[in-house]
Specification:
Layout: H1 5-8, H2 14-20, E1 29-33, H3 40-56, E2 60-64, H4 71-78, E3 86-89, H5 93-100, H6 136-146, E4 149-152, H7 159-171, E5 175-178
Parallel strand pairs: 1-2, 1-3, 4-5
Length: about 180
């Protein structure tokens, strides 16, 4: 890369310019969570709250904005000033919402910059303890035999919802989703 000579004349000014920039953050940071307080995503936000406050020397204010598969919270962040003081704790719905909703008030890719992967969350299939179904094959066989089966997840468009749909397709069974 070539650097123009005129730019080299500015080198002596760099230390002064660096001092003129305030350290980030110099005020509280908002962390928007698209789910209710006390839920799994809120729990993760609160796990990071104290360590980040200590590292930054500023409060991290967790703001829960539940509803519409986190669309409401995501819109708040998309419309905020692009100054790094409003963050979104996004989940898998960040990538699935564009497939579910015909129109979103933001662009899931263009309007956001990922910063860090904070955690992974497995999708687990559960049955009652006394159920005769002990494996995924048992569930598929029962759904085929009974003409379908219902399953519940935390909501429409959740990773569990999509995992159930993928399982039904792969197993060739009919599953009814209950949010």
């Amino acid at each position: 890369m070539r650097i123009p000579r005129r730019s080299l004349a500015l080198l002596p000014l760099l230390p002064a310019l660096a001092r003129a920039q305030s350290a980030w953050p110099d005020k509280p940071v908002r962390l928007i969570v698209g789910y209710t307080a006390g839920g799994p995503t809120d729990f993760v936000a609160r796990l990071f709250q104290d360590p980040l406050q200590q590292m930054w020397g500023q409060p991290l204010v967790i703001e829960n904005r539940p509803g519409a598969s986190a669309v409401l919270a995501t819109e708040v962040v998309a419309r905020s000033a692009p100054d790094g003081y409003t963050l979104l704790l996004a989940t898998s719905v960040q990538s699935s919402n564009p497939a579910i909703y015909a129109r979103l008030p933001y662009d899931s890719i263009a309007d956001f910059t990922p910063i860090a992967l904070l955690y992974g969350s497995p999708t687990v299939l559960f049955v009652p303890k006394d159920s005769p179904l002990k494996t995924a094959r048992d569930v598929a066989a029962a759904a085929k035999r009974d003409g379908g089966m219902a399953y519940a997840t935390s909501g429409n468009g959740s990773s569990g919802h999509f995992a159930g749909g993928m399982f039904a397709r792969k197993a060739g069974i009919e599953l009814t989703h209950i949010a």
